[in-house]
Each structure stands twice: as C-alpha cells, then as structure tokens.
Specification:
Distance between the termini: 44 Å
Strand order of the largest sheet: 3-4-2-1-5-6-7-8
Radius of gyration: 24 Å
Largest sheet: 8 strands, mixed
Number of strands: 14
CATH topology of the largest domain: Rossmann fold
Structural class: alpha/beta
Strand content: 5-15%
CATH class of the largest domain: Alpha Beta
CATH architecture of the largest domain: 3-Layer(aba) Sandwich
Shape: globular
Number of helices: 17
C-alpha cells in the first residue's frame, strides 16, 4: 500500500494521496479473510436466534436457509427504506445478506446491523451536475464490483440484488452470475424520465437516448426486474423487456409504523373556531410542487382564515425559494416549515392534520410516480389531494381520492376548500381510498416479493 502511494504522480496533492491511502486500506480490510470469516460467523448467530420462526413458514415465502445474498445500493444503509425492507425480507427467508452501500461520515466502514453485514464504500453522495453524478456512479460501480467478485471467490452468492440508480450497477453482478447467482434489478425510478425532469432534457437528447440504451442493456443482464408500480412496469415492458420479467412491489408504508386507523363511524363536523391544518411532507424539490401548494394555500386563506400549512422535509435550496414566496404572499404566520421527522414521529403529525396534499408539477417523472405519501395519509384515515396522473390513476379513481390537475393551484385550492366544507362526502372518499390502501398494503407486497425470490432461487421461471 505504501509503495502504491509512493508511486502516485507528483502532481497529486496531500489530500489526494491521503484519500488513495484510505481507499487502499479499506479494500485490504474488506478482502481480509479472517475479518470476513468473523463477520460471517457473527451474522449466522444474529440471523438465526433460537426463538426465530422457521423461515420456511414465514408468510409462506419458502425456505432459503443457507443461501447467501449480496445487495447493492447507491444510497446509505439503513437510510433508504426500500433497500432496507428488501434486505429484511431476505433475512426473514433465512438468507445471509451482505449489503454494499455508500459511506457515511459517522458510521464504520463495516458493521453487523439489524442482522445485515454492511460494507460501506468510501464514497459519499454529493449533488451536482451530470459529470458529478457520472464520477460518483463510476467509482461506486468499480469498487462494489471488485468487492463482490473477491467475496464470490471464497463463497459464492446465490442471489445478487441490485437497486437502481444507476441501472448499470448490475455490472457488479457479472462475476457472481458466472458462478450461478441469480440477479434481480430493482428499478426504483426509470432513469430516462428522471434525468429529463432533473436536467430539463428532451426525449431525443443524446443523454436521454444513452440512458435508455443502458437501461435496456442492464435489464438484459438480469433474471428478474422489480419495480414500484404499474406505470413503471408498462414503461419497462414497452422498451426494455417482456412484461413477464417485471414484478411490481409497491412502496407501501410499513404497517408496524403506520398501523391502519379507521375513521369514526360518524366524524364530527369541523369546528370553524379551530385551525384547519393542511400538511405537506416529503422531498422538497421543484418537481414535487411545494410552490404550487403555497399558491393554493394563499387562495384557501381567503375563505378559511384560520387555515395553516405545515411543511416537513429536508431543507433544500428550493425550500429557500418557497419560503421567499411565503414572505411575498404575507403568509409567514400561517405557513410553518418544521424540518425533518422520523417516520415514527411523522405518524403523529399526520394524525393532527386535516388534509394532506401532494402538489406535484406535471413532468415526465411525476406522471408515472405513485407517492408513498398517499398511502401514509390513508392508513391514518386522512383525506389526501393528489395530481391527476397515470401513476396514481392506475390505482385510484375520483371516488377514492381527491384529484387536481398537476400544477393547477386554483383547482388544488378548490379541493382543499371542498374537503373543509363537505365532511360527509370526504368521509366516503376516505373510506374507499382506505380499501385501495388495504389491497396494496405492505403485508401483501411482502408476500409477492417472497414468492418471487423463492421461485427464482428454486429454479423456477426467470424470464
């Protein structure tokens, strides 16, 4: 390692030399056989305590005891809920799981966490332009591929489960697949649509066409594709693979955190002397339309003077623009940014609100998105107003959800006012919305997931 660092060009700064030294040290630790064996032993003890139920009987998901999985995600663990829940399901099925993910400043490079062997790569996600994303993706792909290949030499993987973005992260599965591993690509987001939205690119731009080709190539390298809703399945089936290769596993709320709360048989009429609380939570980025929500709320204040808007989410540059908008409209006393909340705390905030809004702008990405927030509100018996888009209308109709035209603050304001003044009709819509939630709740999605994995690993249909 020291010899390698000494061989670096003289043009490298002390900081660059330090980074390379740490990277080489990290890789050496990762492939150290003694450390790896110790972690495997600890994982086995953690994954199979004597009080655990037999994995073969957990939700009928199939017995995968003794099988080994590698999961890869360009996100920190356990921050991203979809990869975390996927890993948890594999544990329930009796598998041991190595999770390769982004590094975090205050977390160790390796640890056993929640029964998962976590390997954090010395790469952190930084927002930036196209070239910044390309650099980070490339470094992560190269390092994760090397680590998985080295571990496969000692003990092969039965499954490699890759989360996009990027799609080409499936490169890390090529070596274990040669030794018989099955490969799943979990398409959280269609990259062409997301890139068009983030960078304002046209459908025929070279960047979008390249990403679409990489998507098709990546899907061609895997046994199964998993995605988040029917709209995304239609997209992948139309341009990259047969429909039978794609399984939909929705981002339904965790029922242990968002337990179903049915509304009372007779809801009390709204006390006009009390505040009427409108709630927004989620990513505060332009495509999610918080600025549209604020404009709608300004209209609502003219008819409901005691209305308030509560905003929850990570602070972003776009939030600063929105708060400037709030000041310009004179809404400082009725619009409140309350920061980030853990999911467990968010349940309480939802219980206190009168209506949730999803004020999305119309764009290539939001057109196909089915926000988890929809189900989070409905799980607690709250009305929710959402954009009239394919990703939502595949599951809801006007009898089970309140709709507005994306980007139309006038119609959004009208729907908020309707909810406030029509409690009986609102209750009927919420009741039907909760039935849609129940049909797609996580218990059912988890069962679909387990059946798909069990079939794949037993040599069933791989498409």
């Amino acid at each position: 390692m020291e010899a390698f660092c000494d061989s670096l060009p003289d043009t490298y700064s002390d900081g660059q030399r330090f980074a390379w030294k740490n990277l080489m040290k990290y890789v050496a630790e990762i492939v150290d056989e003694g450390t790896d064996r110790a972690l495997s032993s600890r994982s086995a003890r953690s994954n199979r305590p004597s009080t655990d139920p037999d994995p073969a009987n957990v939700l009928g998901g199939g017995d995968c005891r003794g099988k080994r999985a590698a999961m890869v995600s360009f996100s920190p663990y356990p921050f991203d809920p979809r990869p975390r829940r996927a890993a948890d399901v594999l544990l329930k099925m009796g598998m041991s799981v190595d999770f390769f993910c982004l590094g975090e400043e205050k977390r160790p490079g390796r640890e056993l966490l929640n029964g998962i062997n976590v390997a954090r790569l010395p790469i952190t996600h930084l927002r930036g332009g196209k070239f910044a994303y390309a650099y980070q993706y490339s470094a992560f792909i190269l390092l994760s591929s090397a680590m998985i290949a080295l571990r496969s030499l000692r003990r092969r993987y039965d499954l490699v489960y890759v989360h996009n973005m990027p799609d080409v992260l499936v490169v890390c599965s090529i070596f274990p697949k040669l030794f018989g591993a099955k490969v799943v690509l979990d398409q959280h987001d269609p990259m062409p649509e997301l890139m068009k939205t983030i960078f304002s690119l046209g459908q025929d731009s070279w960047g979008v066409r390249l990403i679409a080709k990489l998507e098709k190539w990546s899907i061609g390298r895997v046994n199964r594709v998993v995605t988040v809703n029917t709209a995304c399945k239609k997209i992948f089936s139309a341009r990259s693979c047969a429909s039978e290769k794609v399984t939909v596993i929705m981002n339904s709320p965790d029922e242990s955190i968002f337990p179903l709360q049915m509304r009372p048989e007779v809801s009390p009429r709204r006390d006009v002397s009390k505040k009427f609380t409108v709630m927004y939570h989620g990513s505060i980025v332009e495509r999610n339309g918080l600025d549209v929500g604020v404009n709608a709320f300004a209209r609502v204040r003219q008819t409901i003077p005691n209305a308030e808007l509560k905003i929850y989410g990570t602070k972003t540059p776009f939030l600063d623009r929105v708060m400037d908008q709030v000041h310009g409209l004179g809404l400082e006393k009725s619009v409140h940014y309350l920061g980030v909340r853990q999911l467990e705390d968010l349940v309480h905030e939802i219980d206190l609100c009168d209506v949730g809004i999803i004020p999305n702008q119309r764009n290539a990405f939001t057109d196909i998105n089915t926000p988890t927030r929809l189900f989070e509100y409905l799980s607690r018996g709250k009305p929710v107003i959402a954009p009239r888009t394919a990703g939502i209308e595949d599951y809801f109709d006007p009898e089970s959800l309140f709709f507005f035209e994306p980007g139309d603050d006038v119609e959004l304001a009208q729907q908020i006012e309707y909810v406030a003044s029509n409690p009986t009709k609102t209750d009927e819509v919420v009741d039907r919305g909760q039935q849609v939630y129940l049909e797609n709740r996580w218990t059912r999605q988890q069962q679909i997931f387990m059946n798909m994995i069990a079939e794949l690993l037993s040599g069933g249909r791989t498409a």
